[in-house]
User: What shape does this take?
Amino acid sequence: MKKIFIYFFAFLFICFILPALLTKWEVATSSQENENIAENQEEISEEYIYNKYGTIKLLHTDTNAVEEVALDTYLCHVVSAEMPVDFEKEALKAQAIVARTYTIYKINHKKHDNADICDDSNCCQAWISKEDRLARWDGDKEEKWKKIEDCVNETKGKIITYNNEPINAFFHSNSGGKTELPVDVWGGGSNMPYLQVVETAGEDGYTQYNSEVELSNEEIVEKLKEKYADIQIDFNNEEDIKILEYTSSGRVKTIKFGNHEISGTEARTIFGLRSTNFEIEKIDGKIKFTVTGYGHGVGMSQTGADSMAKSGSSAEDIINHFYVGIEIKDVNSI
Ligand SMILES: [Zn+2]
Assistant: This one.
């Protein structure tokens, strides 16, 4: 009799209870999957939409053509032109925020009649086509491009503001340990209080930190003559080539060459030096310039940003270090 009950319950279990349990388990699993799909769809639909500045007019200086491009697509071309792709992600993200801010500043302070910005780094901001960029990279080129895209997309809409206005976000390669005031480079900048002298550790680990230029006495005179036709230097007189004044960051402010006193910035251009942070030495009919850092030194140092990122700083930390008293804001909120 007992056996009949056991068989009966086994029959019930196999025919009804087990299938019911399995169905329940399947429903639970698939609803979990649906939830994940729904989450992903939410992520996709949360695409950032710019109220303003969504597209920009880019002037290609080689063809004179003006191209209308999405802001963040344009920024991928800028970031990949301005910073080495093997730099830390947080440094590249800082560069993306800086480049976005600089672009929007340029849109509001136009240099070109029919365009917002051009592709020349000497005029506006560097830009490189994807084709040219990939051709110059080694290894997994698409993965590198994706790294750039991720850094731009992860900072979508973010810009640097001072008094709720986009800042003039200057940057350079290597500050040599200390950034520079704009007044000591271009003579202006009193309206840019966010650009101050700040110190950064670790920049000496980069190739941009140290450089030397050696010129013969004749070459020195020749180069100076292009600007100062009446130049006269007595190379035997210790006082005839002399640094007269330094800026607050320790860069050369004024230097004497014979009968002329010229600015450090001018000396940098005339002699092709990487920065105005240099020392001079007279050696056997030659002048040796020992230069520290690379670039004008104003705003964010790119190698400084990478060095900070290596020590664990975020893109926001980096920006707050190099630009004083600023706020990182969503561009749609200003
Ligand atoms: Zn331009």
